[in-house]
Automatic annotation (TrEMBL):
This is MOSC domain-containing protein. It holds the Pfam family MOSC_N. Residues 119-261 form the MOSC domain. PROSITE patterns: MOSC (PS51340). It comes from the Bacteria. GO terms for molecular function: catalytic activity; molybdenum ion binding; pyridoxal phosphate binding.
């Protein structure tokens, strides 16, 4: 069992970046979802409301993050001094406004006023205390620093679909191969390379999975969510993947070994 692929999401709900490896910091994967898009009420905006955000890509470099906006160009995301209080689901968090040129270009592309915001190190948004007793932090991810998925589970799902889908529909950080489909349902802790992880919650899937990441268009038949709901519905929702927290700093890379250290029997 090993790591098949790794993804970072520099800006929440924009296209992900496949990477050969990443460092882990206090937030989770270094650089993951420290940027977010908000509306004129400072509430978070995602592909759930605006599927075409899938067409906006982010590029990470030593100099920071840039976004490529169709028909608008490429813009660096630079935190400004202006502070703002933003809303992510039930949470509020301190953020810094992004460069106005990038925000103006995104607003033009989407046809509504939108702004980029950044979570600085001084901001603290807590991981769901109902699932994690420790006072752990997370960036602008929906609730937890990591999403783990299993390639065999996607392969099994695709046998049930008329049109197979890619793993990018599910926006994982870590994709694991070499284990049977749905084995991840029983994982409680694991070690990837030298880094330990605690599995804290099955990932409940939403309409975002119905957005084609290549076109930014929602599937008219609400697939693959419709099919998943016929056999993966639980009290936690329609499940694909597992949310996790890391137990130490370090680095993980594609090809790292994965060992399950605790699972339900």
């Amino acid at each position: 069992m090993k790591v098949q692929s790794l993804y970072l999401y520099p800006v929440k709900s924009l296209a992900g970046v496949e990477v050969p490896g990443f460092e882990l910091d206090d937030f989770g994967p270094k650089g993951d979802r420290r940027w977010m898009i908000v509306d004129d009420q400072n509430r978070f905006v995602t592909q759930r409301q605006m599927p075409r955000l899938a067409l906006v890509s982010a590029v990470m470099s030593d100099d920071g993050v840039e976004v490529q906006i169709p028909d608008q160009g490429r813009f660096p995301l630079v935190p400004q001094e202006e502070q703002v209080r933003v809303v992510v689901w039930r949470d509020t968090a301190d953020a810094l406004m992004g460069d106005p040129a990038a925000s103006a270009a995104l607003s033009e592309f989407c046809g509504v006023p939108l702004r980029f915001v950044y979570m600085p190190d001084s901001s603290f948004r807590r991981v769901d205390p109902e699932r994690v007793a420790d006072n752990r932090r997370v960036g602008f991810a929906d609730g937890f620093p990591f999403l783990l998925t299993n390639q065999a589970s996607l392969d099994e799902l695709n046998t049930r679909l008329t049109q197979p889908v890619s793993m990018t529909r599910f926006r994982p950080n870590i994709v694991i191969q070499g284990v049977p489909a749905w084995a991840e349902d029983n994982w409680r802790s694991l070690v990837i390379g030298t880094v330990g992880f605690q599995v804290v919650k099955p990932c409940s899937r939403c309409v975002l999975t119905t957005v084609d990441p290549e076109t930014g268009i929602k599937d008219a038949g609400t697939e693959p969510l419709k099919t998943l709901s016929t056999y993966r519905k639980t009290p936690d929702g329609v499940i694909f993947g597992q949310n996790a927290i890391h137990l130490s700093s370090g680095r993980i890379s594609v090809g790292d070994s994965v060992a399950i250290s605790q699972q339900e029997s």
